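Here is one chain, start to finish.
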Amino acid sequence: MPTKNQKIAPRKPRTDAQRNREPILEVAKEAFTRSGANASLDDIAKEAGVGAGTLYRHFPTRDALIEAVYRTEVEKLAAAEKSFSESLPPIEALRAWMLLFVDYIATKQIIGPALNSLVGGPSKLYEVSRAQIQGAIDSLVRRAIKNRDMRRDVEPSQLVDMPTVVLRSGLARGGRFAMSLRHQLFQIPPSGDTSTRSNLPIYSPSH
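Its structure:
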């Protein structure tokens, strides 16, 4: 045991572990998108460039990996809200975040069957993620309203629900879901050119 005069060295960040974790999650998202919840974990490890043992150290069960993929997408949204708010004008920060949100919705739709395979179902996971997403959109909308880029009667929930409305209307389907949704909500051409100004009716010119 260390004596009173001895200092305990701080634990160094496991950068190697983080480097392994990130590609596993990226490959797993693609694998669950292609093959659903039954995607081969050994194949995921191989494609991510790690051993099966490394994958299982990070994610002991299939459920743990599926859940981590989903949580990572939500965390990206939360981090993006802070980044965009610091670097972009209010309305552009909101628009940039909404584009990421569209990609998140597309991923959620695709890996939905895998999420439904979680023991106990995904309801608790969705509840936590909804709170994080709502917090991000609330902050972005408040900034846009304060800057007089949006009407004061706009509810953040309107924006959160828009992709689902488009999905249910049948205007965005299949593997081109995200591209179609971007076009329906933002009139962004398939090339991904984001210079086109949004035509969402809730936006209003600055006064």
